[in-house]
Request: fold
Amino acid sequence: MKVKTVSPIQSCSSIARFLAVALVFGIAYTQDPIYNSPDNQNTKFLQGLAKAGHGLLSEDWLANTIDPLPAFSFLVQFTYQYIHPEWMFYGYYILIFGVYAYSILGIVNHVYKIGYSGLKYWVFFTVFVALHTVHIKVGNFDTGWHFHAGVADQFILGQVFQPCNFGAFILLSIWLFLSGKPFWAVSSLALATTFHPTYLLSAAILTLSYMGVILREERKCRKALSVGVLSLILVLPVFCYMYFTFSATNPEIWRKAQEIIVEFRTPHHSLPEVWLDDQVPYIQAGIVALAVYLVRKTRLFLVLLLPWMMAIGLTVAEIQLNSDTLAFIAPWRLSVFLVPLSSCIVGAGLVAGGLRKYGDFVFKHRRLVARVTLFVLSVLVLAGAVEQAISFYGKDKTTPMMEFVKQTRVSGDVYLVMPDSKRLRKFRLFTGAPILVNFKSHPYKDREVIEWYSRLQLARGFYGEGCGVLGELRDRYGISHVVLEREQFDWGCEGLEELFRDQYYGVYRVFGG
Reply:
């Protein structure tokens, strides 16, 4: 049997191309600064940074709840302690940008034969970057977001490095499967679920798709079964951890906790009647339907069709059953890989069709087309770089107050901050100081969800009604400091001593008892 070998030069060329794609796409897309973002990073990084010794976060109540993301928390902890406290996280995300882009380019090449170099490849790559970064609003539809985000405000890529980014390995799995490597494909699915267990359903359905394609095309039952068994073995540790760690304390507590998360904390993720309220999900469903049609003669057809049908079917089932359990699982999360992949397939179809129709013109003016492509790609990267620089060096009105807290925090401090303030979501990571609670970040164990809800209601009571519950907050939760906004400066609460004030925020020490 002849064995295909790859020379070191070819390997280096492939690695260089991957890194170039990753860097160009990553810069064009941009990232938020780790400790200065209002996004999910403030939730997902908390337990890892607390274990690594960032500030006094090890004393924070939420940081000591049961961790739903142990693999990601370990990565954060290990990186902070042993590699670099900050910049490596941006490097991780650049690599994930590369996995995401390279996988989609590989899948598109399977459908349209765009190649891995040459004019057609770079024209499509430029279109790919534009689909993810050029924001044109048509009603509620934002091209730079909704072409690659899933429904219900769920996504793979976002402005910060977080567990859902590992959904890029779902796209890698599809590419590996199309490349004739089904066992590597399910291994990639397992990696995605290890870092973000909510991808378990996606992994299960894609595995069934792979098995179906193998049975249909190769008629090999043993191979199909082996792929399914390997997938099950690889995801079993994550499934067991989630199932046994987050099992119900008792039926009543479980029911109440699910209701809090689904109907109070995340209705925009969990309730179809909420996220189906505008035209965006219907447009995205149409894009997926068009992509499924375009790939109908390829082995990608079943890989897209089954998840798409399951997402629609389970959404209809949730609407009919009104089940908090099904809403909590959020089967429409399948859209996080269906939508970006479908958008790129449709985009690549337009590029391939255009190049085919105007092939003579393109060949005759290929240098001009190449220059225009390079110019557009350069503009996208430059715009991303400028936006990136502004985000890293810009400051907002919270910075002086939080710098004061960061410099003066001591062990035993517990801060009460406005729980619904988007600007103050970053308070924990920026200052390294424990807080009582905020709305954005919550635990997942049922009894801890109820405790989080109780803390949240008490914190809202203080900021909504004034000073009345300050004594209870101090005695019950050990609140040592309170942060007030300018409109609250004249409350005159007894038991507060002013430590810091600027034109936006004040920090007060709690005394008495």
